[in-house]
Write a structure and sequence with these properties.
A six-stranded mixed β-sheet has the order 2-3-1-4-5-6, sandwiched between helices. Helix 5 packs across helix 6. The chain is built from eight helices and six strands; from the N terminus they run βαβββαβααβαααα. It is α/β, with parallel strands linked by helices. The protein has a single domain, classed as Pyruvate-ferredoxin Oxidoreductase, domain 3.
């Protein structure tokens, strides 16, 4: 069984990435379950998805401390979900920062030591400069799929399964961009 938490803010593509992973797992004949939480997501609020696949999955929700992977698209949102990661789980975090409303209004300061804290407290972690990768691609909105590309290096699926999943879930005019983003993520 594989448990993946995907975390970010509204508009960063958390749900699309969860659907792509579930499509790949379904196509590989795994039992697959997923759950998404997105309250004020369209206004930049928190979004989290649980994705589980294996021989038999009974619940779509991942218990705290049992996630094999935490895929974080934004630093604060990643920190908020760290309690889901198992002691041997792998954190893959974008270095991206999106200021929440209290930071935007000046009520609080965005923490500047998140990466240092993670480096000293999370055994298996990968930091990804996804914004730099997106600039290299020329597609600013590909951060989510670049991050998916990084994750694919750790999942036991062959490289050829991602293209059909992307084609089935993404508008045709964005397919090529998304496939390039996955490839770039794999190389990071």
């Amino acid at each position: 069984m594989v448990n993946i938490i995907i975390s970010g803010v509204g508009g960063t593509g958390v749900i699309l990435v969860s659907k792509i992973i579930m499509e790949v797992a379904n196509n590989a004949k795994f039992d697959t379950k997923g759950s998404e939480v997105h309250g004020m997501a369209q206004r930049g609020g928190s979004v989290e998805c649980h994705v589980r696949f294996g021989k038999k999955i009974y619940s779509p929700l991942i218990e705290k401390g049992t996630a094999d992977f935490l895929l974080g698209f934004e630093q604060l949102e990643t920190i908020r979900k760290l309690d889901y990661l198992s002691p041997n789980g792998r954190l893959i975090m974008s270095c991206d920062k999106i200021d929440p409303v209290p930071v935007q209004t000046g009520a609080v300061k965005y923490p500047d030591d998140i990466k240092q804290w993670i480096s000293s407290h999370v055994k298996k972690h990968v930091f990804v400069d996804a914004n730099k990768a997106c600039k290299k691609l020329g597609f600013k909105k590909a951060l989510n799929v670049v991050m998916l590309g990084v994750l694919t290096r750790y999942l036991e699926f062959s490289d050829d399964v991602w293209e059909p999943a992307v084609k089935s879930l993404v508008k045709e005019k964005f397919v090529e961009m998304n496939l390039k983003a996955i490839e770039l993520g794999k190389s990071l």
